[in-house]
Amino acid sequence: MTAAAVEVAPVPMTAKRRGAQLAMLAFAIAVVMGAYASVGLGLDGKIPAGMLTYGLGLGALMVAAYLVLARFAPWADPLLLPLVTLINGIGLVIIYRIEQTGQAGASATNQLFWTALGVVMFSATLIVLKDHRALQRLTYTMGFVGLGLLVLPLVPFIGKEINGARIWIGVGGFTIQPAEFAKLALVVFFAGYLVAKRDVLALAGRRLLFIDLPRARDLGPVLITWGFSLAVLILQKDLGSSLLLFGTFIVMLYIATQRTSWVLIGVLLFLGGAILAGQLFDHVAARFEVYLNPESQALYDREFGGSYQLMQGLFALGSGGILGTGLGEGHPKLIPLSFSDFIFTAAGEELGLTGLMALLMVYALIVERGLRTAIAARDPFSKLLAGGLSFILAWQVFIIVGGVTNLIPLTGLVTPFMSAGGSALLANWILIALLVRMSDAARRPPPQAIQDEGMTQVFQR
Amino acid sequence: MNGTLKRASLACLLMFGLLMLNVNYLGAVKAEDYRTDSRNQRAFFARYSVDRGWITADDGKTTLAKTVDVGGDYRFERQYPNGKMYAHILGFFAPESSRGIELAAGKYLDGSHPDLLVRRAIDFISNEPPKGASVDLTIVPKAQEVAYNALRASGKRGAIVAMNPQTGAVQVMVSLPTYDPNTIVVPNKATAAKAYNKLDADEQDPLLNRATEKTYPPGSTFKVVTTAEILENDPSVTPETQVAAPQVLDLPQTTVGLPNYGGAACGGGQVSLRYALERSCNTPFAKLGMELGWDKMREQAAKFGMGEPIPFTLPVAKSDIGPEEELAALAQLSIGQRNNQMTPLQMLLVAAGIGNGGEVMKPYLINKIVGPDGGVLDETKPDTMTEAVSPEVAAKLKDMMVSVVQAGTATSAQIPGVSVAGKTGTAEHGDNPAPHAWFIGFAPADNPEVAVCVFIESGSAGTDATGGHTAAPLARDVMQAVLQAK
């Protein structure tokens, strides 16, 4: 080995891959514009007038996001932004398509507006939050903010009950779903708290049978979260959010402490809570009934808590088959709330099994990039935060997609980046900004040593 | 922490794996169940997403059923421009069922027939709605109109059916009372079902195609079949052969006798076969029928297609002379009474078979199938159904049937300048004093272009209805219309 050879082969370093990212972004925009055109052709044989407006609007937004990212997080993961753009764009197209059927509540213009605001929040997060570890200092603040947001809909005059769930607040002319923001704050809180306490949680305690039981005062947060999830479930009838938060907390606890016993305790607590809720509350019991036998005519005909909506979603999926009817050729109007919780099934009808597999693949890739960031991160807080945010995204997709496809009992949640709804879109764009920020930190090469020091220098990332 | 993160990643992988497996299960395995579930409205929409083929007559020149693009979820609307006149032929394309030609040629009309596979693939790729083939019928619209208007003007229930005896092509098929299929094809299950149920509950039974779907005692028109067997059985018998014609025929093992119509005498008790048919005397045919025996009568009936449902485009009820009983029953069925039950279509085939030299052609309604691009996909070739009698017997019978119209009971079926052959029937049945009135015949007798059967249901024509007065004039109008339409 000659000295010259070593000089041309320096230590492998992370590439920025900014060019590839831009190309993928352009590809994502092109796919979305093609989908717009396809909707128009499917509906009335014409390319819709809004295609350029929507397409170029989305394109301009994403280029802006790209520029902010290139300036403020140049080492960030190149896949995250294009993947989210693709799925957000497909969501826009499907909402636009549903709007064309005249289903009340579906508005592509609103969704594009919220997307724009989401990109603003994404940029602002990247610009303001130069170092995500600053969040660690806000652990307890975030905890209180999160709990506060979660309770907000229960406050009289502010809270609103829509479609049977009290998870909304009215601000001005808008309705906001604070749980979506609460979920971010609580993940930050969990990460900060667990990083601080993980040693006592993991080490102190008694051994009972095969399970290591932690000390009661360390168990406190678990019990509080469990109780809180149940309270949310009971008071707001929001099964989805409580399942989301509780599951995320258990997994973050496991990541932090490496204790399988905690997962076991958590699962037992959850099952206990679910069974209790099933006994006590009709609307919870109804979900189980529907889950076990959705095709029953009696449940289908039941006015409240029946299987009508679920079956309409499954009919849509079945009618789509493997290749789908094609955009604009299906009947999403038949599915109640097809633009919201059930957007995945509406997509299934027109894009088919193929399209759904692609969408799930994109979600899986986003989660994979997030988890990769967690593993590559250099400090425990970053690892836990990135792991938690990635998991909560995967968990949310699992809960809602699994629900509408009757893999698990249906609990309402928005489909991230796809369902119509501003709060979820803003919160999820912030979530992605946090992942981008952390991936930038993880991938950024450490300060370079002076090369002249010698050939034996080894970089450890 | 990397170890637990990796395990958490595995959990995420598992979750996405489960979602993907489940989506595949739904989209590939369960899809068919969901697609065809009656609660899935898409199947209903799909019924209206096809540019359904038209139904025409007269080589496409007359439109009987058409499809109109109205857009929306129920994009293609079915319309029947002359619905009531053609209801029993066309049937209907209702939200949950179809009937008539709409059912019989359904696969061609909605484009799902294998012959249209290529066309369907082109439509799919070019994103055009699938287009069905159109069906051209053998119906002669002008004659159909004459038949419909004449029967309607008479205010009677019944059926008129006519065909070309040389090919089997059905030229006229009218059944009254009728209904408007346009009320049943509305794309709304509840409205359509309501309209259908109302028709279904109607005592007059407008949904019934009286020409094919129900059997009635054929009365004296059946004497043509009996005569055919008399002639077949003994080649030496001619129209001039003398036969016994008592005023009342003693029936074995009974105390009642079998009289002629109205108890009248038939000549001097000994008449020619021709005269017996002309006057439609009962006793000679009843007597000769008994002499022939069950087996020979059944055999001759089968040669005209009786005993089996006639193969036809539309559903046909089975015509039959009934089970073997005592000889008295044979006497009655030889003159078209007792358990003798025929559809008007079956009696039409009797006339057509005689007109066509003994060869009964298979009746058909569909002339040809024309693809969306104008190419002919299928064309019906005339086919022989049965050989009912020898040409010699057919000639003798034709000769006698011409006499019936010239000098017998069916003089009102005469057409100036055209020789018409025919036979009337006035069928009493059960205890109902009002008889069914029948006429079967063909014209021109020498080279028949049209055979016709007119059936007027009992009660609707009054107690004094007879084949000669009630049915024959209608037959004359219809035959004339067919001949003029040529």
TrEMBL record, chain A:
The record's Gene Ontology cellular component field reads: cell division site; plasma membrane
- Keyword terms: Cell cycle, Cell division, Cell shape, Membrane, Transmembrane, Transmembrane helix
What is an example of a GO molecular function annotated in this UniProt entry? lipid-linked peptidoglycan transporter activity
Q: Does the keyword Cell division apply?
A: yes
Entry's Gene Ontology BP terms: cell division; regulation of cell shape
User: From what organism does this protein derive?
Assistant: Acrocarpospora macrocephala
UniProt entry tagged with the keyword Transmembrane: yes
Membrane association type:
Multi-pass membrane protein
User: What stretches pass through the bilayer?
Assistant: 22-39, 51-72, 79-99, 111-129, 141-159, 179-196, 216-235, 241-257, 262-281, 342-363, 384-408, 414-436
Which InterPro entries does the record cross-reference, listed alphabetically?
FtsW/RodA
Q: In which broad location class does this protein mainly occur, judging by the first location in its UniProt entry?
A: membrane
Tell me where it resides.
Membrane
| Residue ranges the record marks as coiled coil | none
The record ties this protein, via Pfam families, to: FTSW_RODA_SPOVE
> What name goes with this protein?
Cell division protein FtsW
Q: Which residues form the signal peptide?
A: none
TrEMBL record, chain B:
Q: Which GO terms describe its cellular component?
A: plasma membrane
InterPro entries named among the record's database cross-references: Beta-lactam/transpept, Beta-lactam/transpept-like, PBP_dimer_sf, PBPA_dimer, PCN-bd_Tpept
One GO MF annotation is: penicillin binding
Q: Where is the Penicillin binding protein A dimerisation domain?
A: 52-135
Any one Gene Ontology BP term: cell wall organization
Concerning SUPFAM superfamilies, the annotation shows: beta-lactamase/transpeptidase-like (SSF56601), Penicillin binding protein dimerisation domain (SSF56519)
- Give residue ranges for domain Penicillin-binding protein transpeptidase: 158-480
A Pfam family that this protein carries is PBP_dimer_2
Q: Known PANTHER family for this protein?
A: PENICILLIN-BINDING PROTEIN 4B, PEPTIDOGLYCAN D,D-TRANSPEPTIDASE
Question: Could you tell me what this protein is called?
Answer: Penicillin-binding protein A
Source species of the chain: Acrocarpospora macrocephala
